[in-house]
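Recall the central idea of this unit: under ordinary conditions, the amino acid sequence of a chain determines the structure it adopts. In this exercise we apply that idea directly, starting from the sequence alone.
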Amino acid sequence: MKKISLVLCLLLTQFIVAQHKGNYDKNAQISRQNVLSSAYGNAQVHGPQTSNPRRNVNPTSAITLDVHALFNAKASSYTAIFNVAQIGPSADGASTLMNERISNIKKELLTIGIKETDIAIDVISFVPVYEIEVTKKLFSKKYNEVPKGFELQQNIHIQFKNTQQFEKILATCASNEIYNLVKVDYFIENIKEVYKKLQDALIKLIQEKKEYYKILGFDLANYNAIMADDKYCYFPKDFYKSYQAFNSISFEALKKKKGVTKAKKQTSYYYQPVSYENYDIVMNPAILEPVVQVGMQIKLVYSPKPKEQKPAPKTEIKTEHKYYVISPDGKIDVKQLNTNN
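Accordingly, the structure predicted from this sequence is:
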């Protein structure tokens, strides 16, 4: 009985791990949840047990402090942009129909807390629309472009602060036949405070690393330093990935020897934030919804100061002073000059 319980627990654990993995397979891009895809059986599906390889470390006389910090900041406000096109038999007709749709949207959004000042209209184009008119004659046929109406195209910018409002905004636009969501922009009002928190955290980490090297016998006060820093933002719209979750194999169709009509497979998208593996500090690591990821890096390179060279000792050079005495008969007598007195 104990053996049976142990087997059931192991099977249940494997099932739970498989469910947490979901449908996405980064290696195959197409999920096959229970298909043997390699020599490891279902290990590809349930998560391969990879070993942590040992990293090579190369000692050097220079010491490098390269620290990275990341802050997951929830946006303080959002702006959704919808594109809408309206055609009409005349310029006034197209403009009137467009104004009616925009007016209905504004009235409905007021009921969910969106102010009229939070809605802006951006006119993209207002052009005539042409169609081909066929003119038939006895021995020829002509195709002429003739104006049939006008097309007005606008972008609607809607600002909101609560993500729960976005569903109601979508429903409001859909009820007025507006389905083209262009993008959603994220904004942070206190970006300066975010950078200040990252900077303080990195400075504290650098001080800790300096103390660590000092314990090892390397006092960085005896080193010359050069540095570089950088800061950046990652927005959610640039970090959505796609995959397809389906299985096109049909054993029933093979048994009946009938042709298979392939259906269009749906492409799914998901938010994949920046990985934390290359960061020393991560603030607000748990993410429930897409966020703005603000990062900062500080890199310091310390090289040993050159040793001071002692000046060479001065050497006294003794010089002997001589003078020459020439007598009237031309003889030269060399005399030693005494300079000690």
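The helical segments are 2-21, 43-46, 91-110, 164-175, 191-215, 251-256.
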